[in-house]
Amino acid sequence: MGIDIEKGSPNSTEQPRYAIVVLDENGNEILKAEDVTRSRLIRLAWEYQIDVLATDNIYELGSNDKDVISFLALLPENLEVIQVNVKNGMFFDLREVAKEYGIEVQGKPTPARTAYIVATLAMKRAGTKIKFVENRTKIIISKGRRSGPGGMSSNRYKRHLRGLVLRVFKKVKEELDKHNFDYDVVVRRTKAGMEGAMFIVYAPRESLFGIIKKMSGHDVNLEIKALYKDKIEFVDSKKSSQRPIIVGLDPGLEVGISVLDMYGNPLLLTTKRGVDRESIIELILEKGVPAIIATDVNPVPDTVKKIGGMLKARLHIPERSLSIEEKQVILNEFSTKYGLHISDTHIRDSLAAAIVAYRDVERKLRQAEGLIERFGIDMDRNNVFRCVINGTTIAECIENEIERKLFVPQKTETTKREVKPLSNEKLAEENTSLKHELLRQRRTISSLLYEKEMLERRIDEIKRLYNADLDKDRRIEALKNIIDQKNKEIVKLREEILSYTERISKLELALESVINGNSLIVRGNSNGLEVKDFRLFFNEWEINPDLTIYIGRDFALVDHSLPKDLRILMKEREANNELNEDKLKRILDEYRSNRTRRVA
Prior knowledge:
Keywords: Coiled coil. This protein is α+β, with helices and mostly antiparallel strands. The chain has four domains: 125 residues, no CATH class; 100 residues, Alpha-Beta Plaits (2-Layer Sandwich); 132 residues, Nucleotidyltransferase, domain 5 (2-Layer Sandwich), CATH 3.30.420; 81 residues, no CATH class. Helix content is 46%, strand content 23%. The strands form six sheets. Strands 4, 5, 8, 9, 10, 11 and 12 form a seven-stranded mixed sheet that branches. A five-stranded mixed sheet has the order 15-14-13-16-17. The chain has a four-stranded antiparallel sheet with strand order 19-20-21-22, with no helix packed on it. Helix 10 runs antiparallel to helix 11. The longest helix has 92 residues.
């Protein structure tokens, strides 16, 4: 799909309209449309499954990098964006580029004609690809919903949620390891367990299809996001410094990065939250080529080891982890020298590691520099410094650099093609636009700095209040647990008291009957009655406890008339074999009723 803006502008209140042309793989025109809105452009891109979007100005899609990337993120995955009039970081007139590829353009082309030209040039591999999607994917595991305040049930629910988060974390890690993905992982833990986790997978989003699936539920969420850049980048125009540097790293959810040059001067002191290895490396390479990657702890963290391997830099690991006091002493001297105030703990740790590493090689670097000045030979000091840091002797490093100077490559004839630059009128427009943008950005920065200061103060205040509330909640939770335990003990004691009260009542009744001579003591086998383990038997019948006064383990107290009444019942049963169970039950009920009246 080739596009060109027709009217309106991303910078104005009038929404832009585009002319678009879609070509098939053979270069045949299959769609031509004008007055196309941004939403329709996105729909057509999905409908025709566009592989390449071609333009002569990427900022026709948005007023700044963020707007452009937000727009491009809505287009089909794997779509390439090409600006056809950019080569080796330089902008050229579209007509000159078209002429170079055999496309004749008479006068200023219409937007529809421009859309066709840029689409055709993209098919001919003209221009430069624009990179806005990282070759990385973020997997975020989190609890589905907050667990608010509560008692024992709330604590059980919190443990349940953390268990689910841990289970999903282990499943994702198992799948990534099984398919040999390279990844970093940051885990958020508390004393109570795992609260969440974030994987940075060094592979495009589509490579995870069918392996890791999204989850969205009440208990656990799993999000999968393709990582987008925060600025437009032309693939062939990225440049970085080649000077050797010393880098101190403090990895974690918040990564501290400190960069020093070969004289110990600070080039970068920053903290980045939630960044992956490649983002850290890109940030470092903007300042130079790392000769040393340093850490303040021993053993060395896995992330530092991986970054050192990827950058082929020497690792500097202290014999033992630096204490907070040691790091503070190092930083106080450094801060005084450079007039810095360092309050961020991550910068403190990374900077202390970098300074210690620099001090270990400083003497050799200065000796090498002194020899270079004494010899008076024009040579690249950076190459010598890098060589010395890698462990080679100073003499060998200087000889290697002299050998490199002795080698003179043969000159080859090259033909230069004069490229006509952009018109002065267009350059003036761009210059004016950039000046306005610069002023706007400066105002924004000033406003953001003030807002940052106010937010930091607010955060400190909230932290103080939060810690006080947290201590209060902990004390309340502890008291609730004590109260719950005491309540359980009270219920148990009440049940025991009730049981003892019932036994006392029975014993009092039994004692009264013995004193009054109204009871018969049954022990062993007496009058046909027998006691076995708190149970009373008359021949083969088991007597209901309600018919007795008291039953112990091996004795019982019964009414004097009970043996006589039971023998009568036995005779009636023998006399009338047809006496069924219902009749017997009725007779026993009558006996109980008569006995109750007698007792009363």
